[in-house]
């Protein structure tokens, strides 16, 4: 009888181990699938309760990405906004249109609104819903300084629910371009989701507004729901368009998970406030200037560097007007140069004008306005500081240069003995013979008023 070869034994062992490995992997895969099936279906709720800003866009985009990662069934974007930045609004809508999870924008609670940018977001969402006693509209683009484009009613003067107001008159070429771009954009969103594109155009051209019931009747929105639970109940079984593909929602007994803004969003919301970003920028610039003027001071440089980094963080997400920034820097340089160059105020006045103009036009967006009192206050403060520096500089120039012992005139020292006429005093870390104009007592503080050879003329300092 022939014995089994060693190679055959090894082969059987290898196959046996491979079989056990495959069985283990199959069991692990089954457990993962079962775990995924047992996981409760989720609806991620995001909340926007203020103006649409870069911080808002960052929060919404991250929330949608989180919902995609978690495999959520739906994102509920709760809105109560007066509007906001066009760039931030478009970023949010783009994220909604490209999302792999459906987004239901919901104007809630009662008394809330989706004005201006909020109207565009509603139109750009696969599901548009409102709570009773809410409104949307006033989607007219605004210009620098507020108000609608010339020839059009402001948002507050928009037409009634029917949106039948006087058509906008033609403005400048740029104003017409902005208006037509907004109209084309919102009509495209309306047509994508089968909503009322004509009313959307009236909301842009005439600042029209609608309440929840009227919006539903005119096919501006899809659902009127009293709360989130009612919204989810009405969405169950509804077919929506997600990334261009129809999808049927299953929202029965779904778990709602709130994702509120975190510290990143709160910080971004603070520093992207136009006034705060402006102040941080100025603190950073002047902190660095003071550090360069006084090397080793450390504190101004440290504060300036931190403020400048925070300002740059805000600037990268905000529509910065580089011409405005250049004017601010030029104005600061001119006002500092005024202290060193005899321009008789020309540099100071020019610097103040450049600084003020740059501050007004710093942000390249009509909705981002720095408070005028802040600009005036900062400009006056900088001008006052420049005048003070200039005054000190002129005082120094007016003083007669002192050389040798003459520089001791005005210095103070201490009497080393009592004397009425002549005695000794300690001045400038040296012992001097002195002549007194009045009786002096030992230890008394004296001031040098003249010098004659190696003898000082002093008088009591008190």
Describe the structure.
This protein has 462 residues and is an alpha/beta fold. Helices cover 47% and strands 16% of the residues. Strands 8-5-3-2-1-11 form a six-stranded parallel sheet, with helices on both faces. Helix 3 runs parallel beside helix 4 and helix 13 packs antiparallel against helix 14.
**What CATH architecture label of the largest domain applies?**
Alpha-Beta Complex
Regions with pLDDT < 50 over 5+ consecutive residues?
34-38, 143-161, 163-170
Number of helices: 14
Largest sheet: 6 strands, parallel
Number of self-contained structural domains: 3
Question: What does this entry show, briefly?
Answer:
The chain is an alpha/beta fold and 462 residues long.
Topology:
Layout lengths: L5 H33 L3 E7 L5 H17 L3 E6 L6 H13 L4 E5 L5 E3 L1 H8 L2 E4 L4 E3 L35 H20 L4 H9 L3 E3 H6 L5 E2 L3 H8 L3 E4 L2 E4 L6 E4 L4 H9 L2 H20 L5 H17 L6 H16 L8 H15 L11 H27 L13 E4 L6 E6 L2 E7 L8 E8 L2 E6 L2
Parallel strand pairs: 1-2, 1-11, 2-3, 3-5, 4-6, 5-8, 14-16
Antiparallel strand pairs: 6-7, 9-10, 12-13, 12-15, 13-14, 15-16
